[in-house]
Write a structure and sequence with these properties.
The chain has 388 residues and is α/β, with parallel strands linked by helices. Helix content is 35%, strand content 21%. It contains 13 helices and 13 strands. The strands form two sheets. It has an eight-stranded mixed β-sheet, sandwiched between helices. Strands 1-6-5-2-3 form a five-stranded antiparallel β-sheet.
């Protein structure tokens, strides 16, 4: 009698077939990316709104694995206005970090590829679509116009080089024209002082392992700000830090953003941090945006059942409960996503229409948008009369 195969089982033959097919797709994409002497007209674009630093437009980022195609980011559209902080929130694996890595074009290649959509970066006098740029041109933008503070500073800093050498390298690569070694060192010391490191001369000569987690994170922030970028991506920069250091890092980021007039794309799963930092909030689930709006919209008028569940699951100071709420069920398989609302199988607020196609985006107000059948015209009256 044949053994029952577990769900998601793939035979070696099927895995080879998928791998061969994926290799053909990714090789074609990589060949296009590695071209030289690409004319600027190919990646020159126009911002939809000149007040935005970055515009994500229908972004699709997939990973071509031996088990199938993982749609990590599946049609994401939002903006990061100049001088503002946009918080991207959601549970682990929802596509937050992959969205930011798509902007920096630091995806794990050749498996990770942007297959559709645009990411428009505002350079002031012109705008580029970074998804169409060759590697050689992208290198000129990273550091100068966009930079990233990574989640874990110990794995982002090189353990065999001194702190000073690593910050010096960033400045010499991206902003070193006409500067002597002494000028670069002076700028590095200034940056270390700017991020609140008191013994900047001493830290300049230290190795990463000689610093605490908070100090390493400050060094990462100094490196990210070295060339006064237009957009700073902060990918959960306070996750590994204790509460007091976390507060210091958040204050530091807010002050420095205003000082150099940058925009911040702040990625986290901590709603408290989002409430503290963000002007606008984007809520992601399973690679798609389920709700977006101002911080006031999301925190005081959450509309999507997933957002409502996230709000209910956070502890509240002064309120005693026997057990914290947790959203039931689990995220669907990213290789085989359903054709209906991804949250339907976990949702406790289903209405007419939830059995249909994935819900389109509905505007609740000028700034507040949600993808949910509860806000279609036929269900709106019931929703407004109920718990929403």
């Amino acid at each position: 009698m044949a053994k029952n195969k577990p769900e998601g089982y793939l035979s070696a033959k099927e895995s080879r077939r998928i791998s061969k097919s994926n290799r053909k797709i990714t090789n074609a994409m990589e060949k296009k990316r590695k071209r030289k002497n690409v004319p600027e007209s190919e990646y020159l674009t126009q911002m939809h709104d000149s007040k935005n630093a970055v515009e994500f437009d229908n972004l699709h980022t997939y990973f071509f694995t031996d088990a199938g195609v993982v749609k990590s980011v599946d049609g994401v559209t939002f903006e990061v206005p100049i001088g503002k902080t946009v918080g991207v929130v959601g549970e682990s694996g929802c596509g937050k970090s992959v969205t930011s890595l798509s902007l920096m074009q630091l995806l794990q290649r050749p498996q990770g590829q942007v297959v559709e959509g645009e990411i428009r970066l505002n350079l002031g006098d012109k705008a580029y679509d970074v998804t169409k740029m060759p590697n050689s041109e992208l290198q000129k933008l990273r550091g100068n116009f966009m930079s990233m503070i990574f989640q874990e500073p110990m794995t982002s800093l090189n353990p065999v080089f001194r702190i000073g050498n690593q910050v010096d390298e960033v400045i010499s690569l991206h902003d070193g024209e006409g500067k002597t070694k002494e000028d670069i060192k002076k700028r590095t010391i200034e940056l270390l002082e700017m991020v609140g490191i008191a013994n900047s001369d001493g830290v300049y000569k230290m190795y990463p392992h000689e610093l605490s987690g908070g100090m390493r994170q400050r060094v990462m922030i100094a490196m990210a700000l070295a060339c006064n970028p237009r957009i700073i991506i902060a990918d959960e920069p306070t996750t590994a830090l204790d509460v007091t250091i976390q507060a210091q890092v958040l204050d530091l980021l807010k002050n420095l953003k205003d000082k150099i007039n940058s925009s911040i794309m702040f990625i986290t799963h901590d709603l408290g941090v989002i409430a503290e930092m963000a002007d606008y909030v984007v809520v992601m689930y399973a690679g798609r945006i389920v709700e977006k709006g101002t911080a006031d919209d999301i925190f005081h008028h959450p509309a999507h059942p997933y957002t409502i569940g996230l709000m209910a699951s956070k502890p509240v100071v002064g309120k005693q409960v026997d057990k914290l709420y947790s959203i039931p069920g689990k995220v669907p398989n990213p290789i085989n996503m359903p054709n209906y609302c991804y949250f339907k199988d976990r949702c406790e607020m289903c209405v007419n229409g939830c059995d249909g196609d994935y819900p389109c985006e509905v505007s609740i107000s000028e700034t507040h948008k949600v993808s949910c059948y509860r806000y279609n015209e036929e269900n709106k009256a019931k929703t407004e009369g109920g718990e929403a």
